[in-house]
Write a structure and sequence with these properties.
Elements: E1 14-25, E2 28-39, E3 43-47, H1 54-61, E4 69-74, E5 77-78, H2 84-90, E6 92-94, H3 107-115, H4 122-128, H5 134-150, H6 166-178, E7 184-188, H7 196-211, E8 215-219, H8 223-229, E9 232-237, E10 240-245, H9 247-251, H10 254-262
Parallel strand pairs: 3-8, 3-9, 6-7, 7-8
Antiparallel strand pairs: 1-2, 1-4, 4-5, 9-10
Bound molecules: adenosine-5'-triphosphate.
GO molecular function: ATP binding; ATP hydrolysis activity
Keywords: ATP-binding, Nucleotide-binding, Transport
Protein name: ABC transporter ATP-binding protein
Length: about 260
């Protein structure tokens, strides 16, 4: 866990609390005083037209970027200065808009790599199989196989990740993120490039992950998926928070509708 102190005044039921978060890139305000919080166990959709600032927000929650101003607290602890690898250990995992798997490793090996933050052996032992680490490796393999079963990828366990169809690679990214045993999982456009059948399966998987108690943030351009999966939705536009509410409230919000129409 992070060594930072709990932030006073943040109820424990909130897993993530973002206050007045601001990030500049040159003259562009990619995040302009964004504030919202996420209760444990929910799915929070994060939507907005292209360039709204969704990925930048994910990058700040996961320690890739440090905010120029404002606060981010995870489980009541200030994480503004916590490096990315420590945030994974603390329980924040993510997937990326563009699939990032080790394409010349099998799917099972990819999951084992994702698991290394929870094992003593670490990355190289997971990959090179040092004999002293065999027992831990057996346990890790069992857990990896369970995860592949959970995500419906069992049949692909020993295939090279790079040989899998795009849809399976996207699911594999989620499986690998789950391998780090997150409390908060950030999904960046998980449905991009999926066909309707794959998108339906993704929806089922998101529900299963939610039932397992993991809180999620979902950046997605597939509005039906976001509205179906989310308990609440935060809308960004040009770096500002435009609206926050239930899917029903967001669907009726005029500012949201005109932002989408205005942007294209
Ligand atoms: N590393 C960077 N350097 C400079 N500008 C950046 C950087 N990352 C993001 N931006 C700018 O910040 C703004 C927000 O970008 P961001 O990628 O967060 O939007 P987004 O909502 O994720 O968009 P999309 O839906 O197209 O992925 C954009 O104007 C973008 O050009």
């Amino acid at each position: 866990m992070t060594q930072s102190e709990p932030t006073p005044g943040i109820p424990a039921k909130q897993i993530l609390d973002v206050q007045n978060l601001t990030k500049m890139f040159g003259g562009v305000k990619a995040q302009d005083q964004i504030s919202f919080s996420i209760e444990k166990g929910i799915v929070c959709g994060l939507i907005g037209p292209n360039g709204a600032g969704k990925t930048t927000l994910f990058n700040m929650i996961t320690g890739i970027y440090q905010p120029d101003a404002g606060k981010v607290a995870f489980n009541g602890k200030d994480i503004r200065k916590t490096p990315a690898h420590r945030l994974v250990k603390a329980g924040i995992a993510r997937t990326f808009q563009h699939v990032e798997l080790f394409s010349s490793m099998t799917l099972l090996e990819n999951i084992l790599v994702g698991m290394h933050v929870r094992t003593q052996a670490g990355f190289w032992a997971a990959v090179t199989r040092i004999p002293a680490m065999k027992r831990e490796e057996r346990q890790s393999r069992r857990r990896a196989e369970e995860l592949l079963e959970f995500t419906g990828l069992c049949a692909d366990a020993h295939k090279m990740a790079g040989d899998l169809p795009a849809g399976r690679q996207k699911t594999a990214q989620i499986a690998r993120a789950l391998a780090s045993e997150p409390l908060l999982l950030l999904l960046d456009e998980p449905a991009a490039g999926l066909n309707p059948v794959e998108t339906h399966a993704l929806g089922k998987l998101i529900q299963k992950i939610k039932q397992s108690g993991i809180t999620m943030m979902l950046v997605e351009h597939d509005m039906s998926l976001v509205m179906e999966m989310s308990d609440k939705v935060v809308v960004l536009d040009q770096g500002k928070k435009l609206a926050e509410g239930t899917p029903r409230q967001i669907q009726r919000n005029e500012a949201v509708m005109s932002a989408y129409l205005g942007n294209g």
